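Appendix C reproduces, verbatim, an entry submitted by the partner laboratory led by Prof. M.T., so that reviewers can inspect both the input and the predicted structure.
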Amino acid sequence: MNNGTIEKAKSGAGTPELRTIKIKPKPINNLTFITAKINDKIQERAKEYIQEGIKNGYNIILFHVKNGELTKIPEWFGMKATDEEGKKYKADADKLLLALSKKPYGYGVLAGEQPGGRVFISIDVDIDTEECKERLSKEIEEQLTKLGIKYYKEITKSERIHYYIILDKTTDKIESITKLPYPGTCSKFKDGEETKGEIELLTKKPVVVYDGIINDKEPFFTQKPEINSYIAFENFLEEWISKYKPVESKKEPKEEPKKEDKSLIQFSKIVEAYKIIRQHRIINGWEIDKVFSSYCIINNVPEEEIIEGFKTIYGLDYDEKITANLLRLTRKKDKNLLPGIGSVYYHINIALNTEGLSEYEKELLNSVKEELRANIPYDYILPEYLKNAENVILYDSLPYSNKDGRVYYKENYFIEQNINGIKKVIYVSITASEKYAIYKHHKLDKIKEVGIKADIIRLVKDGKIEAYEYLINDKVIYKPSFDYSKIDDIIHEIELIGMKYTTVFDVNLYKRYLSKKIENYIKENGEPIPCVVGKTTGWSEDLRFFYHYGLNDKYHELHQEHILYKYHKDLIKKKDKQHEIVKALLQEGKLLAVLLTASASSILIKPFNLPGITYIVAGNSGAGKTTSSLIATSLFYYSDDVLMNAQTTKTGLELTISSLNSLPVLIDEGALAGVNLSLNDLVFMVSSGKGKTRGRKDLSVDFKELKSNVFWTTEATDIDELRRTGAFRRMMYLLVNSWNDLTSLFKPEDRINEQYAGCGIDYIQYLIEHMEEVKKAFKEEAQGLNPKYKEITTIALNLYSGLTLLEAFYNTRFYELRKTINKLLNEAKTRFIDSKDNVVIQLRDYLESITYQRFHVINDGTGIDKKITHNEVYGEYDKSEGIYYITAKGFKEIAKEMGRERQLLVNELEKAKVLIAKNVSYYTKATGQTIKVYKIKFSEIVEPEPIETELMELETVEPETVETKAMETEPIKTEAVEPKTVEPEPIEPEAVETEEEESFEEIYIHDYVKRYKENPNEAVKFKESVKKYIKSGEAGELLKTVRKIRHDDVDIIQQAREQGLDVKENSLISYVISDYKAKKYCFGVYGWNYDKDYYLDLVDKLTEEATKRINGFR
């Protein structure tokens, strides 16, 4: 029989047909507990199946996966696992899918009434004997078919059989039956032991469904249910039970060994004894649970009897879930180390010495005591160190022989005690005639207190170091600091925590104790998978998890010392309502929507490999700059106020930004007034993605990644300073005149940022699940951005990445927002082009600002007007001639400050006739040395003014200085700033190509004709190449085909490089249009946004025209 198949019955109604998906199953070890390996592909299928199951009216429930294996433990989402509580459970698709996205689960159906009013039940044939299984399954199927009952048949990996049946209703009669009788002796294997097989009828319990997990079959609940009459099923039960009900034997029962008889007699009395103890509160509930469950397990009492025993003892206080968990944990322990008859005997003695017992109760307890005493072959008294024992751990057991050759054992134990709520550990050494004798007759050799009890919670990983978290004294969670170099340091940290409960601590014994705890933990749970603790927010390397306080799970967690925890920003408030507000803002499309988009794009910086952008929010006081930015950051964390205050240092700033990796950060200019950090520094730091912070022992590291978008709010920002340094391509400038520029949906005093927080975690979760789809959509969007916003591509890509995500998440295209973003990008592009095209003005402005700080100033050709003695000198300035003599090192620093490549700056200044000489010898008047310099002379210049701040000697002010200072009160005329037009010197024709305004048509026809004359095939290739680049939208490649680069024209080569072309100097094979007019004509007024269809048709027409010219030449 094939594993995991769903088979049709051989006759009668049979099983409804199910679809099959063709996915090759992986081999799964499914022995004993029907476990199955869970992988990512299975989880993706599970999400689809679960949605279909809920749609079809089934009460789907998840089952836990432990160490990669599917278990029968349901996920109740905080509910108690009782029948009454189970009735309240209703499958929630969103909740189930969210749980599945965080970690693996299996699935199944909660038996009983389903959301659609129908009833689901399961018949489980838990039998491993092959002959029995085949015989009984055949009879079940024949009986069901005879009564017209349709069923789904599932065969598990271990080849046990499950029948799933849907009824129109249920009855007390059906629910009262839990097991079906059967003829013959059939067995099953449980925990490696052979036990009696069972046919179970499940009417209220969670039922694991294996199809789709252990094989490639869809589970039955993906199909519309086939509903059966409850009357027909009642008839099936009646006929089956009447047919196979066991007949009472008239023979005398076979005599069992005397000891077994006593055990059977004792159990019912022991239950009654503990019922008395419980009613009179003689022993606490935990002690009763521990000793009674241990006694049952040691004596192999059937589970049904154990459960009935607990029900009797606890009455109305009985909890099925607690009992099931208790028995599971007790079974895991070594039977030899469980408290047995001696502990029960000890409890009975305590009870008999208690006042208030009735005569019946005393008589029953005395009877139990005598029967127990008969089973103890020695005068057993429970030692004091075991009376409060919660757990006994064997450290070692070594055999020895005496002179007579008789074997005895020396054993060492760690005993965890409960002394009035303090959980201590003691070390006990004993000698006994048999092994595992701690609860048997033995002689005490040594006893010593070790320290406080510790239970392993989990393995955690911080960087390369792994360590365990412990629950100390069953109350305090110990999280390792990872600031240690040896094991003793961990023990010392635990010792400090335990000082509240005990001051006795033996380090060497405690290390042995923890070593044994670790050994037992791994034995019970398998090889532990560490929970990776992230010191910063942001993506894991495989992009499958994002470290955030709202996304912590079993294997990933944000460090508890993170800044969001420290400043209580770790809140999620009404995120569903926040989604509604955010969507409305995005549809409105004003500046606040842009800020929200920039905030969302922060989480895409790493996966899309984008640089961070600084968003400068400037405007008047009270316009809402800070409030709007806080609303934007509240998508991902509670933002009632800025994270950085006036005490924040530059290092603290870098640490804050880096700790909020991939999340937006708000920096208020006023709060950082005392920090030695300019906006220019911030822009380049954020864009480069690197800080200079050095390591500290808390949360910092040696190398910082600053993958974040930053909001900088300001009332006065020096745009000219940013213009000089080339920061424009790395930041977005938003000017806010009033709150209405941001939004008209609500007022700033509504403090939306304080009312809502955290909806952005849903964006992250969406990305985890749909990363490839979002990447694909963004890639398509980016194809149009690169040519359109070539100069500021990084800004455009950053904004549009967030827009792509938000439109995908909300399944809405935000047209108004797109218009606003495009308007802002065009403004930024214009600002950048203006910055780029006015290099001469920038240089002049910059030199004016530093003349009296970085230059020796001479006057009238010989006199020294100002000599620099303290700062690094860039050269000399001749006031009378208006010439700067700049050293090579000084010129390099100036280019760096302006954000320009030195050689390109030289070329531009030469073209403008501002650089009148380079690398020429010059005798300095101030130092009397001959040096190599660049000579800079502007056509007309406003005289620089001294701006030194250092203290100078008092002296008589010369008239010239007074006259110069007086100029400060006069407005500087624009005409005086602009350089005069300089007529270019004659250039020989062969030195440079024509700068005439050639059109695309002229260039194409010229090149086509020229290539045709050389080789017709080359002309054809040329045409196809041009069409190819037009179709692909690669403007830079199209430019390559239409204009040659001269080998000595570094400026044109650099332009080609900026377009992404692999152009080497002295290369004659690359083509580019260098003049702005041709670019404008060829690719549209707004840059590279050209009409592809138009140019494809145009190429065909131009080819015809070129062909006519060729034929005309002939």
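The mean pLDDT is 77. Additional entries are available on request from the coordinating office.
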